[in-house]
Every structure is written in structure tokens, then in C-alpha cells.
Amino acid sequence: MPPTSLAPQQQLHGLYRDHHGWLQAWLRKRLGDRERAADIAHDTFLRLLVSGRLPGHDEGRSYLVQLARNLVIDQWRRQRIEQAYLASIAHLDEPQTPSLETRAMILQTLQQIDQMLDSMPAKVRSAFLLSRFEGLGYADIAERLGVTVSSVQKYMIRAIQACYQVLYSE
Fold this sequence. Notes:
Shape: extended
GO molecular function: DNA binding; sigma factor activity
Largest sheet: none
InterPro entries: RNA_pol_sigma-70-like (IPR039425), RNA_pol_sigma-70_dom (IPR014284), RNA_pol_sigma70_r2 (IPR007627), RNA_pol_sigma70_r4_t2 (IPR013249), RNA_pol_sigma_r2 (IPR013325), RNA_pol_sigma_r3/r4-like (IPR013324), WH-like_DNA-bd_sf (IPR036388)
Number of helices: 7
CATH topology of the domain at 1-93: Rna Polymerase Sigma Factor, Chain: A
Protein name: Putative RNA polymerase sigma factor
Domain RNA polymerase sigma-70 region: 15-80
Family: Belongs to the sigma-70 factor family. ECF subfamily.
């Protein structure tokens, strides 16, 4: 029976059986950390399970490598955000330091914001950041980006839609 006619669970099981050890070794070689490699290999297959999108017959390893790379990049981004946040509160006195629960909520929010910004096209992201963090008006943003005010309005609509999506998707 060709692999494409197997039930998705059987395909996933076969993919796991045939490639899990290899993927974990590949990750361990690149990351230099056995536990992180095991976690990311596990998360790679979990992502496959959740998404329901399985690679074609001859695409198993390349598909798994791409998923694993994306997970490593996501992990590095989360670590950078966490380190930056912790550095920003390191100077606070003990009474002003947020509780561990508050820190976790803030980090989760920062990661959602990062994902939202990363999902935006470059000009949309730039327009949003110029508006919200530099306080520029649409005409100034248009001049800075070399586009029309109408384009800036469209960019801002897309950016605000992305914000709402993050806020109300959970």
C-alpha cells in the first residue's frame, strides 16, 4: 500500500519511527544540547500532529528539518525577549519587582506582540511602529516610507486588524 493511502495516524507513526532518532541526532549536533534537542524533536512531531499537515512520501526529513529550524528560531526569539525584559526590570528595588506570575503574563504578552509584528509585511510594521512609538502622523509616515497617505491608512488598518486578531484569537 503506498504511503499516501495510509491513515494520517499511521503516516505520522511511520514518520516518527523512521525519523525521530535521526532528527534528534541532527538537532543535538547543531545545538550541542541533548535535552534541548530531545524537546525540539518532540515539539516538531507535536506540531505535525496538531497541524494535521504531513509531508509527502519523499519529503519527510526536509519537512521535519524545516519545522525543527522554525521551532529553534522561535525558542531563540522567546529567550531574547525574556532576557531583554529581565534586564529592563533588573534595576528595580524588591518592592517594585513584579511577581513571578506577573512576569509570566508580561512575557507571554511580549511574545504575542513579537509574533504579531513579525507576521506583518515590512511597510505595515514600519507604519504601525512609527505611529505608535514615534507618534508620527500619517503624512509624516507616508513621507518617511515614500508612500501615499492612502497607503499608510491601509497599512494601519492591516496593523490594527493584526492586533485584534492577537487579542481575540484566544
